[in-house]
Amino acid sequence: MRNKPLYYTTNGQAYVGDSLKLLKELPDASIDLVMTSPPFALRRQKTYGNVDETEYVQWIKPFGQEVFRVLKESGSFVLDLGGAYRSGMPSRSLYNFRVLLAFCDEIGFHLAEDFYWFNPAKLPSPIEWVNKRKIRAKDSVNTVWWFSKTDSPKADVRKVLAPYSDRMKKLIEDPESFYTPKKRPSGHDISAGFGKDNGGAIPSNLLSIPNTDSNSSYLRLCKELGLERHPARFPSELPAFFIKMLTDDGDVVLDIFGGSNTTGFAAEALKRKWLTFEMNHEYLATSVFRFLDGHSYDTVKRVFDKLNNSHANYFIGETICALESINKAKSKSTSLGQGALILLR
Question: pTM to 2 decimals?
Answer without folding.
Answer: 0.84
